[in-house]
Specification:
single chain; about 675 residues; alpha+beta; Copper Amine Oxidase, Chain A, domain 1; Immunoglobulin-like; six-stranded antiparallel β-barrel; six-stranded mixed beta sheet; 10 helices; 51 strands
Length: about 675
């Protein structure tokens, strides 16, 4: 059984991490306490990008106005931590001392003077460091350009998105080449010094995948010549090298891959080369009940190679050729709620004795509550997931998966050649009937709802299995292999095949992710979790209409805001929908709103169409459509774009609704209708 769709909502319950409140990212201003003036006031906020990464502090950077001058102030602790500087705070003197690479800067709160290695300097426009309090957090904010340039960093200001970009000093790229000389395939990039990167991965069903790596604050050297590097080896096709500028000049590598590959990016100081190494990784481990059976799921970046062994009450899974990234790559042991599983231990295993000195192995040890045998455990992998069923395979010999947008296949594998009775029931239901000694599956009802098949209902009656397939309207089927050990049912939906939207590509962008939880609800709900859940529901609704859909993230990882827009631009999306949940300092505030860029009339029309449908379907307070000229994901996308706020997590009543799948499904359906009305 293709478990990808069924697992999506299961995974979402495991994504809670981090504690920052980053809902201000969707706003233009914040209200905060100004320690200099001794009162609350409003500040225009700024985006901060350091070395290619979005920086999302609990107190944002601001534009501070004084005596007609405006300067950008940023939270000192965040800048210093990212730079690797040391900071010392003297509460009595109200002074902060920053030391970085041999230089010392002393700043005094509310003073326009600084000491740089003992020499007094005036701060630009006389705007001093201040303490700002926002949502209960007090932080020291310092002049961005002064601090950065004094420490030898490059600083750029992007007015269009109100972003400060701080990078290490500019470097040159002189050579790019592919090598198999090391343990794992690598792309190596020769640079004049250490560099930072950002990246995103594009999976393309009908063509090569693409890994895009942006080397931050670099330019190609004068003697650089190979802007296209053919590889033509196994999974690796070619490398394209280009330059682009957005606030800072970057070098972009577009690596064409013939199949999905895991990867790791690091800087090799010994050879002064940036390295893109292709290697699998273990990203997530959890227990869950799947089809009535306790299972441990191990998520990896690519199709895994693995070994399974048993030792008493332990099941040992070794994922070969992989980096261990779950839990920050650290050894750990997680307790389990399963009645069969006691705990799960994991680590990057020292494989030198068992496998050899050059092997990279992630080891997962499943500790059971009692001893087991291989006959009682079933292990398989589907796409990038390893499934360890503790009490056997509930769908032994039963497999369903989508072949294309408009077609899917069910396969049944029997113990011996078998003839299956087939007949059409009322309500567009196909019944498959076979003797129960020929196949062993659990009695289950499985919801599919992919626009081709609605659901499977598997029951046993009088020594026979009855498999009822509820098909979507206008789904046709053909049966192949009846009378053999393998029976195939090919499904084909005419509506999806003839859909006028079949060539329309929509990028759905689940907001936040990774160390950025987004808004935090009245009872602690994280926006990033519900945004991803709602995005999957919207994906399903759109695919049922025949749309092509791509998600910027499908798990709990943070993607740079510029890269979200870059991804949509790179794949030629027709629409961009960013999914969010709102929050406010006043818990009484509620309702729905849709944000758009005022520089896009089509974006405004898209937002209006979605807002109309949301209000009509949800019965929510209509907060209207809101122009946001500086939001990166709206301004930098080249297609009509909208950022949808489907409710307020900070409102107790609305949070309860936003935790209900029925409500999120209703919102997803409304957004779909808004998109269709806009396109029609």
């Amino acid at each position: 059984m293709n478990k990808k769709r069924i697992l999506l909502l299961i995974i979402l319950t495991l994504l809670f991490s981090g504690s920052a409140f980053a809902e201000y990212l969707e706003n233009e201003v914040i209200g905060a306490y100004d320690g200099l003036l001794g009162r609350n006031r409003e500040f225009m906020i700024v985006n901060l990008i350091m070395n290619g990464e979005d920086v999302i502090p609990d107190v944002p950077g601001i534009l501070y106005e004084k005596d007609g001058a405006t300067r950008t102030l940023l939270p000192l602790r965040v800048i210093s931590d990212r730079m690797g500087a040391t900071v010392d705070w003297d509460g009595i003197k109200q002074q902060v001392t920053i030391v970085y690479e041999g230089k010392e800067i002393i700043l005094s709160i509310n003073s326009p003077h600084a000491l740089v290695n003992g020499v007094q300097k005036e701060l630009p426009d006389g705007i001093a460091p201040i303490i700002i309090e926002y949502l209960g957090n007090g932080r020291t904010l310092v002049p961005a350009r002064f601090i950065s340039e004094e420490f030898g960093m490059d600083v750029e200001w992007v007015q269009e998105t109100r972003s400060v970009i701080i990078n290490k000093e500019k470097q040159e790229v002189s050579e790019v080449y592919f090598t198999m000389a090391n343990r794992f395939p690598q792309v190596r990039i020769k640079t004049s010094g250490e560099v930072k990167t950002s990246d995103f991965y594009i999976e393309k069903p009908d063509e090569n995948d693409e890994l895009v790596v942006d080397i931050i604050n670099t330019e190609l050297s004068d003697n650089f010549s190979d802007e296209f590097v053919p590889v033509n080896l196994l999974y690796y096709d070619s490398i394209r090298v280009s330059s682009y500028e957005k606030g800072t000049r970057n070098t972009r590598l577009s690596i064409s891959l013939e199949d999905t590959r895991g990867y790791d990016i690091f800087y090799d100081k010994g050879s002064e080369e940036l390295v893109v190494q292709f290697i699998n990784s273990v990203d997530l481990i959890y227990t869950e009940e799947i089809y009535g059976v306790d299972a441990v799921v191990i998520h990896t970046q690519e199709d895994p190679a693995y070994n399974v062994s048993f030792l008493g009450n332990k099941i040992i899974i070794d994922v070969m050729n992989s980096l261990f990234r779950y839990n920050g790559g650290n050894y750990g042991s997680d307790p389990s709620d399963s009645s069969l599983v006691n705990s799960i231990a994991y680590s990057q295993f020292d494989a030198s004795k068992e496998y050899g000195p050059d092997e990279m192995v992630s080891r997962i040890v499943i500790n059971l509550n009692q001893e087991t045998t291989p006959d009682e455990v079933y292990v398989e992998h589907e796409d990038h997931n390893i499934f360890v069923y503790i009490a056997g395979d509930p769908l032994n010999g039963f497999d369903y998966y989508k072949v294309a947008q408009d077609s899917a296949q069910l396969s049944l594998t029997f113990e011996q050649s078998a003839t299956v009775e087939t007949r059409k029931l009322s309500g567009n239901v196909l019944r498959l009937e076979a003797a129960d000694h020929l196949i062993s599956v659990e009695e289950l009802e499985i919801l599919i709802d992919d626009g081709i098949v609605e659901a499977f209902d598997i029951t046993r009656d009088s020594g026979r299995y009855l498999i009822d397939v509820a098909m979507a309207d206008d789904t046709e089927y053909e049966i192949l292999g009846n009378g053999s050990k393998s029976l195939y049912v090919n499904f084909f939906n005419i509506n999806l095949s003839n859909s006028k939207y079949k060539d329309t590509l929509i990028v759905i962008d689940p907001g936040h992710g990774g160390n950025d939880p987004g808004a935090i609800g009245y009872t602690g709900t994280h926006e990033k979790v519900q945004a991803l859940r709602a995005s999957y529901m919207l994906q399903r609704e759109l695919e049922k209409e025949g749309f092509k859909v791509y998600l910027t993230r499908s798990n709990d990882r943070y993607i740079n805001l510029y890269e979200r827009a870059n991804l949509a631009n790179e794949i030629g999306a027709d629409l961009f929908i960013s999914m969010h949940l709102n929050a406010h300092t006043r818990s009484s505030v509620n309702g729905v709103e849709v944000l758009y860029s005022p520089y896009s009339s089509k974006g405004s029309n898209l937002a209006s169409s979605i807002q109309t449908q949301l209000v009509r379907s949800l019965g929510a307070v209509n907060r209207g459509i809101v122009p946001r000229p500086n939001l990166i994901v709206l301004r930098e996308t080249k297609m009509p774009a909208a950022l949808v706020e489907i409710g307020f997590l900070s409102n107790p009543d609305e949070e309860k609704l936003l935790l209900q799948d029925s409500y999120l499904n209703k919102a997803a359906s409304a957004i779909k209708n808004g998109i269709i009305n806009f396109l029609d």
